[in-house]
Amino acid sequence: MEPIVEPIAIHILVVAVAVIAALVTVEIKDILRALMGFIIFSISLSVAFYMLGTPYVSVFQLAIYAGAVAVLFITALHTMRRMRL
Amino acid sequence: MQNTAQVQTVYMVAVVVLIAVGLYCIIAKRELLKIVIGIEILTSAVNLNILVMGLGDSGVDALAQSMAVISMSIGACIAAVALALVVDVFRHYKTTDIRKLRRLRW
Amino acid sequence: MVDITSQLIMYPIIVLLTSAAIMPLVKILEDHLKFKRLKEFLTMLSIAICLLSLSILHREIPADGYLEASLLGFNPPFGTQFYVDEFSVYMAVIFCGLGLLVAIFSYRYMEVDTGLDKYYGLLLTLITGMIGVAFAGDLFNLYVFWELMCISSYSLVSFRKYRWEAVEAGFKYLVMSTIGSIVALYGISLIYGSFKTVNMREVAVRLSLAQAKLSPSAVPSLYFAAGLIICGFAPTRYDYYDRVFLTSRKLRYGLLNRLS
Question: What rounded mean pLDDT belongs to chain B?
Fold first, then answer.
């Protein structure tokens, strides 16, 4: 029994989306947009985890990286912006 | 038809590329928050590698899944500490430029 | 059933982590008391209990043998595991003794600071991480305790956050050491991929069994993984030695100034 049911093209597509999102995150100037890229990167990695047959890790990735860490980043950004004024 | 070895190869190449992207982000970028984002990209890539390494004929090993979850929470801890330090650096230096952080001489 | 010797391994870690966790409660209790130095004495007491349980543990270890504790139902090749022999007890006694000395020294040295409950909690988790690194029986357990030690030492380096030196040094230390430990985790995952286990003894056994029929292409990848682990764990150590050297030099200068 094969644990992986999706054709390999979909795996390559998801991985390519993750790599492109990471590159966009690194290269873009505005930090808030970079954060959006980071969220897309986390979501595509979560989809990859789901396709590998680990839904628990996938939900964890969504909750921690796309949720908690992104909110932490936004909070830090907000604090620094208020300090500058 | 595809087999697990092919999928494993795809993901391993992706992990190497993601680690290269994360290291490039840490080395070349001058924004403090970008460096923290680079650390997070590295952590996610290594989590993906742990899961892919546990991929067997009957799905991913349970040990690999628990290892990935624990390492994910450790990555979130590191992000929290790093962001607290970034806010403190901003409080002292009034900037998030890494080139200004060279006052420390020993 | 869990036998008593495998519980004995956990006692130092349990004592230190519990007293680190109840430190904020002790702070709240202290605000209502006249005696303001409860947390210092709690820290010293828990480290002393830890030393005592280490001495009991040392007596329990059989001659040229070892003790091990693993999660119930997950035997060593699959689960995580603690592995204790004479040398780990020796290292743990060194860490605990140093921690006790630091706690005694901090009694007067940290008097001027606020938020001392967090300081003592971080000190206790730092000692826990070091003891866990000495006791760890598999590579992933080693990584977890390493990160526990690293995160508390980042926070301790930048504890006086009203000074710019502390914050800058803490951030630089965090970036360097975190890259190192992530690289080490990558090496650990490669070793897990080759052997399907992270238990150190099991990896050694399987490596010596497989040495004869190992394909030539697999050897460089194993060397690569081992090199990643060594290079990954090195930066933190380097920082430590740097810091110890620095501290000793400052101490010497201070003593010279005092004498002259």
Answer: 88
CATH number at A36 reads 1.20.120.1200
Please report whether residue A43 resides in a domain. Answer: yes
- Judging contacts by C-beta atoms under 8 Å, the chain A residues touching residue B42 are none
Tally B–C CB contacts below 8 A.
89
d(CA B6, CA A51): 14
Report the DSSP beta bridge partners of residue C67: C84
Residue A2 lies in a domain: no
Domain containing residue A13: 8-84
Residues 6+ apart with CB under 8 A from C59: none
**Phi, psi for C239 (deg, rounded to 5):** -60, -40
| Residue ranges for chain A with pLDDT beneath 70 | 1-3
**Which residues of chain B have a pLDDT value below 50?**
1
C178 and B78 in contact (C-beta within 8 Å)? yes
Q: What is the residue extent of each domain of chain C?
A: 1-137, 160-260
Partner residue facing B68 (CB), from A26, A57, A76: A57
Residue A32, class by beta-carbon neighbours within 10 Å (0-12 exposed, 13-18 middle, 19+ buried)? exposed
Q: Is residue A35 in some structural domain?
A: yes
The per-residue DSSP string of B21-49 comes to HHHHHHHH--BHHHHHHHHHHHHHHHHHH
Taking alpha carbons only, the member of C122, C109, C121 closest to residue C153 is: C122
Query: How far is C57 from C61, CA to CA, in rounded Å?
Result: 7
Domain C1-137 class in CATH: mainly alpha
Three-state secondary structure call for residue A7 = coil
What ipTM, to 2 d.p.? 0.93
